TrEMBL record:
This protein's record includes keyword Membrane: yes
The name this protein goes by in its record: Flagellar motor switch protein FliG
Domain Flagellar motor switch protein FliG middle: 117-191
Primary location: other
Intracellular or extracellular location(s): Bacterial flagellum basal body; Cell membrane
Species lineage: Bacteria, Bacillati, Bacillota, Negativicutes, Acetonemataceae
Membrane topology classification: Peripheral membrane protein
Flagellar motor switch protein FliG C-terminal domain sequence ranges: 219-325
Length: 336
């Protein structure tokens, strides 16, 4: 049997999932892409016999890497190296840090993510919208949402569109913007270059702004770029977010959903989502739905996703008509 130092990352991942057991491994799979799941499943199947020693070593290495990543996130690379050196020695610390930083790109604008968004706004609000979009794409969604809400409405739309349509940015451009912003903030910076922006990025931001800001941006994008606006709206509220609805709103939604679609939608949902739905149905209706799901048999993932999207579309329609309220960002207030 290979030692961890001789294994590929895929082999280590397979042994880690085997060690964690089927329940935990299945939860991990939910966060992976289909091709990643296929590769790992094949690798797990090829692991005919895994010694306890190999399992222990892989688990120890995973724990060390997880701790190192946490240290980097909270205090930067130098902080992580210092902590790990004290615990494991200089040689081991260097090995972990080097491996981690080579496989996980440390994102640009690390210094900005540790800065108050109000302070950042003062420095970037008069910059070109593309510059603002670039910086916001590398911020935490909460930070970016605060900044986007504070921009003038016309700039909100422009910046949101630029973030959504952003793909990869030249390292030289990132360096220049980092250097200027770093000098303004008088902070330390850890550089590296990764892809940022895209539809997922702007969805993360819009989910944290107030409803007025979101509506302004979406309505203007529907005029300027309808396809982009529709793609963003599809991802604004996902099926698992049903747990965020209040009981009254969910009951209104359930009245609009065909029982077959609801059963399909719940087939691959989390227990938390399922219980939320059952709680807002009559006892007889929930029992019938449970039985329907139980006897449904294997279903295609695509059919489940289509059913879940139907539920989400109903939620969007009821929200737009004002019949239900979906909690979004810190700016939403309900007046009673």
């Amino acid at each position: 049997m290979y030692q961890p130092s001789e294994m590929s990352g895929k082999q280590k991942a397979a042994i880690l999932l085997i060690s964690l057991g089927p329940d935990v491994a299945s939860q991990v799979f939910k966060h992976l892409k289909e091709d990643e799941i296929e590769k790992l499943t094949l690798e797990i199947a090829n692991q005919r016999k895994v010694t306890q020693e190999s399992k222990d070593k892989v688990l120890v290495e995973f724990h060390q890497m997880a701790l190192a990543k946490e240290y980097i996130s909270s205090g930067g690379i130098d902080y992580a190296r210092e902590i790990i050196e004290k615990a494991l020695g200089q040689e081991k610390a260097m090995m972990i840090i080097n491996r981690l930083t080579s496989s996980l790109q440390i994102r640009p604008f690390d210094f900005a993510r540790k800065t108050d968004p109000a302070q950042l706004l003062n420095f970037i609000q008069n910059e070109h919208p593309q510059t603002i979009a670039l910086i916001m794409a590398y911020l935490q969604p909460d930070q970016a949402g605060t900044i986007l809400s504070a921009l003038p409405p016309d700039r909100q739309v422009d910046v949101a569109k630029r973030i959504a349509m952003m793909d990869r940015t030249s390292p030289d451009v990132i360096k220049d913007v980092e250097r200027i912003l770093e000098r303004k903030l008088s902070s330390l910076v850890t550089q590296d270059f990764t892809a940022a922006g895209g539809v997922d990025a702007i969805v993360e931001v819009l989910n944290r702004v107030d409803r007025t800001t979101e509506r302004t941006i979406i309505e203007n994008l529907e005029i300027q770029n309808p396809e982009l606006a529709e793609e963003i709206k599809k991802r604004m509220f996902v099926f698992e977010d049903i747990v965020l609805l209040d009981d009254r709103s969910l009951q209104l939604v359930l009245r609009e959903i065909d029982s077959k679609d609801l059963g399909l939608a719940l087939k691959a949902s989390s227990s938390e989502v399922a219980e939320k739905v059952y709680k807002n149905m009559s006892k007889r209706a929930s029992e019938m739905l449970r039985e329907e799901i139980q006897y449904m048999g294997p279903v295609r993932i695509r059919d489940v996703e289509e059913a879940q999207q139907k539920v989400v579309n109903v939620i969007r329609r009821l929200e737009e008509s004002g019949e239900i309220i979906v909690s979004r960002g810190k700016g939403d207030e309900i007046i009673v």
